[in-house]
Amino acid sequence: MSARSGRRSALEQDERWARVAWAYLVEPKSGPLMRLLSEQGAVEPLARLREGRYRSTPELSVRLGTLDLDGLAHAARRQGAHVLVPGDAGWPDPVGTHTAPPYCLFVRGEPELAALTGRSVALVGSRAASDYGLRVAADLGEGVAGRGWTVVSGAAFGIDAAAHRGALGVDGPTVAVLACGVDIAYPRAHEALLDEVARTGAVVSEVPVGSAPFRSRFLARNRIIAMLARATVVVEAGLRSGSLSTAREARDHHLPVGAVPGPVTSATSAGCHELVRDTDAVLVTDAAEVVELAAPIGEGLVDGAGRAAPRAPEDDLDETAYAVWSAVPLSRALGTDALAVAAGVDHARLLPALATLESLALVARDGEGWRKLRTEGAARPT
Amino acid sequence: MSARSGRRSALEQDERWARVAWAYLVEPKSGPLMRLLSEQGAVEPLARLREGRYRSTPELSVRLGTLDLDGLAHAARRQGAHVLVPGDAGWPDPVGTHTAPPYCLFVRGEPELAALTGRSVALVGSRAASDYGLRVAADLGEGVAGRGWTVVSGAAFGIDAAAHRGALGVDGPTVAVLACGVDIAYPRAHEALLDEVARTGAVVSEVPVGSAPFRSRFLARNRIIAMLARATVVVEAGLRSGSLSTAREARDHHLPVGAVPGPVTSATSAGCHELVRDTDAVLVTDAAEVVELAAPIGEGLVDGAGRAAPRAPEDDLDETAYAVWSAVPLSRALGTDALAVAAGVDHARLLPALATLESLALVARDGEGWRKLRTEGAARPT
Question: pLDDT class for B305, splitting at 50, 70, 90?
């Protein structure tokens, strides 16, 4: 069966836009297409497809019949979305070394994706996250961004959104990789979040504008998250969380994987614990350890004399005070009962620790509870 | 300076009791004494000490002046305490392979200490434990004992006591190693607990009856805990917890070490996380994994087809129901709010899970809360 021709465009002669056409026609990770693109480029094979010289599938035929490259280019321009292809200065090379590289990348926001993700960490996890997971994701997002590293995630409910928001909270760069077109807010409730991400960083997808978030595209998307980051950290994940596939992608491509522990009684931490037990994933407990995991050897060491970051006020706290400081949220106030639980200290130690932190201007009373004050340390570079 | 003579006893001619005399005279881990005992036995050197033929320290002189071996024997007998020395059938050989073996061991309860600790796990941790740590320690104590393994710990407040009590709750054997004489309840509040431990298992010490719990004896005691167990698991520990020294003793003697993760926001889990990050300690999340760590290769495998234990009702639960079942305490009722937090599930999933568990007779309502019902599975052998 030969493919029917859709609306032709002069852009089909352009290598960049011919790749976009292929991204519209064929789902991600097609082995035959990847071979074709690497051996012959995008333009010539597309012309041959138009001429009916390839065997086609019914689905490909339908898509070729609806291909409107001018329309795609117009829609991308309207969204301020750039198209990156291999060889562009903005093309992040690591993603191209995946065994199934994307045909092209759509970028809404900062088009210099390579620069944006040169120092980056993927923070991923379950949609159905616990309060604990959400807090840790926000803290890590904030801490990683505060150290000058970009937070890459998937803009999903739960851990992803908390990680993005943590970075945005300190005006840090963050990258959201979508399973649909960069013009589509998915999930719908995250439209404003995605606009914010595009403003400070980038919203990225390998499927063209207008593409819906098919189920298979989520799995494919996870490899882009892993390959845009120097390390992938699973913040909270049940045993069947999709975020574990992101960790697998990173591991398969020899990128470091980290996992945040949690209560062993929590089903939403079981996937993280399994990663540490059954793979070479590294247990990480704070942003410094996350950055250490992602940083080139010798940079950003956490322990002892090698600590790269200048000392912040909180670095000099004793163990109890540091635990309490870590447990006090930045974005809202938390009462002493909840703080005692979160910090794992009893009230007899909690109250003196809060007094110490207050005297150092690290926390402040807020109504019935306590809030963290932003410190220089939160935004210090590594 | 020569040693003054105290009240002599015919028992000083007996190798076993001469060792007890040395345990009274010299603090644990004395290199010179260990060499003396292994080269010449206990009797002859003791006689020479009596004759003033060794250089003595003021402290040794004072102790020799107060040595009353008949009195020690009488006190031990009154407490039902046995004295074990190397070569006894009940002497647990592993402890003798420590670089600083005990001179002898006092045992209140089951004198066949070797048999009692042949399949054993040390569960240790902080005195200042969190509610989470206490619950996990009790669950692990119960689960390890329910699988026919002996729980070894130090009878301290916090994790130690919870682990002992978990084992006692399923009438499982448990061993408490003290830093003072086995006739002394330390801490005082644990007098009844220690009586229970002696009834089902053993209360053990290397220092004679009547000896007070000096600070240095706690550190020395930790090596006995480690060497009476096939593996040491730190359930919850801050960065400076003494339980980390027990883990170090196990590691130094090539015994497996496990650590239970917890919230990264909790100071009382930081020591466990550090063990996993910085040593070859294995992250463990439940009793099956603890037993797997301690069991000889090929026995008690947790995963897949190798699972050695017969299937229990709870083995067939889905992920959410299992998490909820794990979170329901055995010893007391817990309300749904606390259960949702502990299990890491929201109320929408919690209530159906509880209904399922109730229909399987795995949990029961108790007042406003829920309690776990003891199942066959809890006491099944591995």
Answer: very low
For A288-337, write each residue's pLDDT tens digit: 999 999 997 766 555 543 333 444 666 677 778 877 887 787 767 888 88
Whether A335 and A275 map to the same domain: the answer is no
Calpha distance A129→A157 (Å, rounded):
8
- Å between B334 CA and nearest CA of chain A: 14
Please state, for a pLDDT cut of 70, what percent of chain B lies above it: 91
Asked if the Cβ–Cβ distance from A267 to B240 is below 8 Å, we say: no
Q: What is residue B379's predicted lDDT score, i.e. its pLDDT?
A: 33
Asked which of A9, A41, A74 is the last residue of a domain, the reply is: A74
Contact check, Cβ <8 Å, B277/A289: yes
Closest by Cβ to A261, choosing from B130, B264, B326: B264
Q: Which residue of chain B has the CA closest to A285?
A: B264
* Distance between CA atoms of residues B229 and B208, nearest Å: 22
Is A204 inside a domain boundary? no
Domain that holds residue A336: 313-379
- ipTM field: 0.74
B311 CB-contact burial (10 Å; exposed 0-12 / middle 13-18 / buried 19+): exposed
Report how far residue B17's alpha carbon sits from residue B20's, in angstroms, rounded to the nearest whole number.
5
Chain A residue with CA closest to B280: the answer is A277
Number of domains comprising chain A:
3
- The pLDDT of A348-356, averaged and rounded, is 85
**pLDDT > 90: what percent of chain B?**
71
Residues B256 and B348 in one domain: no
Give the residue from B287, B306, B325 where a domain finishes.
B306
Cα separation, B89 vs B103, in Å, equals 16
Domain match, B147 and B296 both: yes
User: What is the arithmetic mean of pLDDT over B80-100?
Assistant: 93
The pLDDT confidence band at residue B345, using thresholds 50, 70 and 90, is confident
**Is B92's pLDDT higher than 90?**
yes
Please report the pLDDT score of residue A329 as a whole number.
74
Shared domain check, A325 and A294: no
If asked whether residues A3 and A65 sit together in one domain, one would say yes
d(CA B172, CA A375): 52
Per-residue burial over B125-163, b = 16 or more CB atoms within 10 Å of its CB, e = otherwise: bbbbbbebbbbbbbbbbbbbbbbbbbbbbbbbebbbbbb
